[in-house]
Amino acid sequence: MNKQTLLLILLLFTGIVNARELEYNQVFFENSLMKKSWFYSETSYESPSFVLNIQGKLPVENKESFTPGNSLQLTYQSARKGQWSARLMFPQWRGKDFIKNGNSLFLHLYVADETPRTELPNISIELKNKKASKGLPLGGYLKNYSPKKWMEIKIPMKDFDDGSSIKIQHSEDIQSIVFQQAATDGKSHRLLIDQVEILPEECANQLPATPVLKTAKGYEQHVDLSWNPVNPEDVKYVKIYRSKDNIHFHPVAVQSPQYASRYADFAGLPGKTYYYKISNLDYRYRESELSPSVKATTHILTDEELLDMVQEACFRYYWEGAEANSGLALENIPGRKNMIATGASGFGLMALIVGTERGFITRNQLIHRLTKIVSFIENADRFHGALPHFLDGPAGKVDPYFGKYDDGGDLVETSFFMQGLLAARQYLNPLNLQEEQLRGRMTKIWESVEWSWYKQYADSPFLYWHWSPDYAWHINHRLIGWNETMITYLLAIASPTHSVSPEMYYTGWASQDTIAQKYRSAWGKTEDGSMYTNGKTYYGLKLDVGVSNGGPLFFTHYSFMGFNPHLFQDKYTHYFDNNRNIALINYRYCSENLKDYTYYGENCWGLTASDGPWGYKAREPVQRMDDGTIAPTGAIASFPYLPQASMKALKYYYRDCGSFLWGEYGFRDAFNLQEDWCANIYMGLNQAPMIVMIENYRTGLVWKLFMQNKEVQKAVNEIQTIKQ
Ligand code: CA
Fold it and tell me: Has residue 2 been placed in a domain?
């Protein structure tokens, strides 16, 4: 085979694989969750010119929009010897990395005053390589100029491409859309812009079909709508209309069918009756007929009902939001549609059990899903029994999303998965033939994990995080506590087939040798807790174990969704008490609020790992690790530790922040009011800890199930009887 043929085959193969992944249209602006300013924008000006901005960002317009609920304000003054520009950056989030190519830039423009066409700004694009195109006159692309109406502007990409300074290979090369001063009349002009996006020019020429609105269910301040799925190839958005009298309907939102067949309409008040209709919009915003209306009434919820509501919404992430082929959890939604996160999937197994107990699904539905999951895992890539961090759902193959060396087993993600699998196995009834068979298959998966292989060498004191068939131990990351990997040591000791010695709890996880000390000081940036034990006092609380002042809250969640900290103490501490102190330190840090974030306090606390304005990061209750980003999972998954403070936080997140923070899968991943930012995504690692830890607080269900496993009991006993 010659090189060219090989290249062609490779290209074809890549094309096929890529084609299966969800491709996003390159949308620079559709709607802003935050009502004040648009985070993914940047303004600048030189007097005597000006562009209206809020802390360097474009203001959001909430009354007038092309696609509901909002648009962007572009209010400017173009003067001689001055200059202004406003830049829209492509909003990136994890897994939004497959982009549909398009050949035209579209936007919708509303001229809110008497601005003549010649005083409209220029528009240009900037590529990822920082090269900028020439500015094109916006006014030149308006077919019919009519102020105070939404007008479509279409600019072929080739117009930006002058063939020399910039070359656009694919629309994903485009990083920003820039509006800038064109004229010099020195007067103030006000435009609104909406739906700034790159789309293919072709589009089906018939009206989309009318969607079927199935249900509307009222909660305290929002109504949950669901409809029959529509095809995202034909429908760009489902448009949602609300009415108070079932006569006058006004549009409130659009929802992409790529992402959900639901919408959580945060109308904002209890005790109200609303009527809803929906329609489909195609890629040119042609609209179908409206569906018949469906009615719902909001009402005050009790504390118990609020907990049910949060649990059900989080459950939905793992039930409705699961990867289609495997039934397992995605890394984040919206995000990649095919990429399974195995650790989050283990958390999801526990969420499915809770969902069954709470009546969100039937036991038969659970058994059906568990069977699908087990069948998938039996055939998926495993590396000495360990799962990789990410699996491609349709193929069941490792997806080295974090880099080429991470193309093998991930023992920590595996332990999160097995924690869920053992809880699920225990939930099944050995007296029922079908369930007993499933238990047997789960046992095989659990027993196939070669925990001892991940020691790297026979007398190793440590377990290692990764092993790759191609790069072996290249990543070479030792597992050393205090962090989220306690469950990994527990299960490695518990394994009936490939166990490690219980002594590794102290020689590995809680090691006090110099390697372990250095490891802890390196990431904690402090000597506090470098011996595993800590012993210092923070905010009036003595911390027995923990690096720095305890670290991010997920350390007290991930290992303890099944593993009951009430039932475990080693020679250094009792883990419920220690976890509770870590949660309390976090709470007191946020209450003290030395960085003076207006929203921090007794209702808003809980620094942990989450998405953020500048990406995913673990945040901690120390000033240099606190950028003002709060993830609801921090406080809500701490329900067993601080139930009253967690309930206050839950109410604040829902009642005060719900308009941007609450959505189809519960609370969005994180928010930062300092930056006027809210995550667009929900994350697999963060939704389940909320439903599961609320359940442990309410009934102890998942703790009971996991701890009933004989292997777990044996490991706990072995660790606790070590005398050192
Ligand atoms: Ca809009």
Answer: no
Q: How far apart are CA 303 and CA 651, in angstroms?
A: 9
Are 627 and 556 members of one domain?
yes
- Ligand 1 centre to CA of 585 (Å) is 41
- Contact predicate 593/562, CB 8 Å: no
Cα-to-centroid distance, 226 and ligand 1 (Å): 21
Of 250, 272, 300, the domain-final residue: 300
Q: Are the C-beta atoms of residues 414 and 381 closer than 8 Å to each other?
A: no
pTM of the model: 0.96
Among 174, 199, 224, where does a domain finish? 199
| Residue 385: exposure state from Cβ atoms within 10 A (0-12, 13-18, ≥19) | buried
Q: How far is the CA of 145 from the centre of ligand 1 (A)?
A: 20
Cross-strand bridge partners of residue 86: 43, 179
**Ligand 1 centre distance from Cα of residue 74 (Å):** 14
Cβ-based burial of 363 (10 A; exposed 0-12, middle 13-18, buried ≥19): middle
CB 506 within 8 A of CB 721: no
CATH of the domain at 182: 2.60.120.260
Distance 297 CA to ligand 1 centre (A): 27
Q: 135 and 263: one domain? A: no
One domain, residues 173 and 249: no
598 and 471 inside one domain: yes
Q: What's the 170 CA to ligand 1 centre distance in angstroms?
A: 25
CA of 70 relative to ligand 1 center, distance in Å: 4
Spacing, Cα 191 to ligand 1 middle (Å)? 14
Instruction: Give a yes or no: residue 705 inside a domain.
Output: yes
Cα of 286 to ligand 1 centre, how many Å?
15
Residue 568 Cα to ligand 1 midpoint, Å, equals 52
Give me the mean pLDDT over the 164-181 stretch. Answer: 90
Instruction: Give yes or no: residues 132 and 77 share one domain.
Output: yes
Residue 208 lies inside a defined structural domain of this protein: no
Instruction: Report the separation in Å between the CA atom of 210 and the middle of ligand 1, taken as the mean of its atom positions.
Output: 21
Tell me, in angstroms, the distance from the centre of ligand 1 to residue 193's CA: 8
Q: Specify the number of domains making up the chain.
A: 3
- Could you tell me the distance, in angstroms and rounded to a whole number, from the CA of residue 260 to the centre of ligand 1? 18
pLDDT in tens, 463-498: 999 999 999 999 999 999 999 999 999 999 999 999
Residue 608 sits in a domain whose CATH number is 1.50.10.140
> Range of 504's domain?
307-722
Ligand 1 centre from 41 Cα, in Å?
A: 15
Give the list of residues 6+ apart from residue 384 with CB closer than 8 angstroms, or none: 409, 449, 450, 453, 454, 467
Instruction: Note the pLDDT tens digit of each residue in 304-330.
Output: 999 999 999 999 999 999 999 999 999
Same domain, 184 and 246: no
| Distance of CA 40 from the midpoint of ligand 1 (Å) | 14
In a domain, 14, yes or no: no
Reported confidence tier of residue 689, pLDDT bands at 50, 70, 90: very high
Q: Cα 292 from chain centroid? A: 33
d(CA 196, CA 177): 8
What spacing in Å lies between the alpha carbon of 65 and ligand 1's midpoint? 5
- Report residue 169's pLDDT band, with 50, 70 and 90 as the boundaries: confident
Q: Do 469 and 616 belong to one domain?
A: yes
Q: Are residues 330 and 285 in the same domain?
A: no
